[in-house]
Each structure stands twice: as structure tokens, then as C-alpha cells.
Amino acid sequence: LEKMTDLVAVWEVALSDGVHKIEFEHGTTSGKRVVYVDGKEEIRREWMFKLVGRETFTVGATKTKAAINIDAVSGFAYEYTLEINGKSLKKYMENRLKTTNTWILNLDGTDYRVVLEKDTMDVWCNGEKMETAGEFVEDGTETHFTVADHSCCIKAVSSGKRKEGIIHTLIVNDREIPEVVE
Fold first, then answer.
1. What family is it from (predicted)?
2. Which are the contacts of 124, defined by CB distance < 8 A and separation ≥ 6?
3. Longest distance between any two alpha carbons in the chain, whole Å
4. Rounded Cα–Cα distance for residues 153 and 145 (Å)
5. List of domains in the chain
């Protein structure tokens, strides 16, 4: 494996199916462009005469749209920006905080990352979309699923405040799991 001597940018992107590492090589003398997602080569272009431009690809099990923009800043200096679903990485992550909840838990010595997509109520665990059962309860809803033979439940209750909206809580083995911010 050749050494990545032209590596100019590395990003970590948290999606529902996991945290993905995106690496970008840009050879400004050869015009080479290489995009790696989780260490796997997605795009390779040799001898590009145009040094600026855009490379588009997908990330993760959900085939999330991504693009790297290459812009000339001055002379031979370049700026590399990553877009996810048409938004800058910063905007995408800010929006994601509003549309998802994420929990990290350890069961029987194994780490699990559980993600709730609030708009669809889909639940993901370590990259797999979970089989869930939803039910209405007195104070809201409960979404039930199983992780490593442990019964899990995401409770959704109204905060009673319009700005806060609905509060989602993950309960595993009758224990509340604290939410993490990625």
C-alpha cells in the first residue's frame, strides 16, 4: 500500500449507522484526487488538469450523499470543505442534533451506539437498523427493541414546553442511559 503523502484533509462524520472517517488526498502537482471512506478507496482520479472542483460520493449503509469541494484560496493554496446531504458539515451536524438522539452503552463488556431518528422513529444500533415495536402509553409512547438479549425501550414524553418539544429517554434493564452529544 502506497503511503498517503498527499493527504490534505480528514473528517469524522457521525451518521445513524456509525461514525465514518473520510480522508482526502490531493496531489497539487499530479492533479491526483483520492477519497477514502472508512479506509476504503471510493474515488481515484489521476492527472486532473483542473485542480479545483468537486468530488461526490456516498457514506455508510444509508448511502448518505457527500461532496468534497476543492477551492483555490491563493496561489497554490487550496481549501477543502465537506458537505453532507448538501449542507456544510457544521450545518449538517447542528441539524442532526435536533433530529437524532444518541446513546452509548456497554452491555456484557461490549459497547453499543444507539441512535434514534426522531422524524422516522427508526432506531439504529452499531450500524444496524433495529426491529422495533411501538406502543402508546399513558404519558407518551414507548419504542421497544432488543440489544444482545437485553430489552431496551425509548420513552417519548412531552416536556410540556413548546420550545423543548418531546423528550426521548433510553431505558435498558430498568436503567436510564445518559444521552451523548457527538
1. Belongs to the FAIM1 family.
2. 16, 17, 114, 115, 117, 130
3. 65
4. 6
5. 7-85 (2.40.128.180), 100-180 (2.40.128.180)
Per the CB < 8 A criterion, the answer to whether 123 and 170 are in contact is no
- DSSP E strand stretches across 62-121: 64-74, 77-84, 87-88, 100-107, 110-117
Q: What does the H/E/C string look like for 107-173?
A: ECCEEEEEEEECCCCEEEECCEECCCEEEEECCEEEEEEEECCEEEEEEEEECCCCCCCEEEEEEEC
The 10 Å Cβ neighbour count of residue 57 is: 16
- Cell (9 digits) for 175: 436503567
As a residue count, the chain comes to 182
Beta-carbon contacts of 119 under 8 Å, excluding residues fewer than 6 positions away, are: 99
**CA-to-CA distance for 88 and 75, rounded, in angstroms?**
24
Burial class (CB in 10 A: 0-12, 13-18, 19+), 115: buried
Among the listed residues 106, 107, 136, the one whose alpha carbon sits nearest the alpha carbon of residue 121: 136
| Cα-based angle 148, 135, 124 (whole degrees, multiple of 5) | 40
Grid cell of 108 as nine digits: 456484557
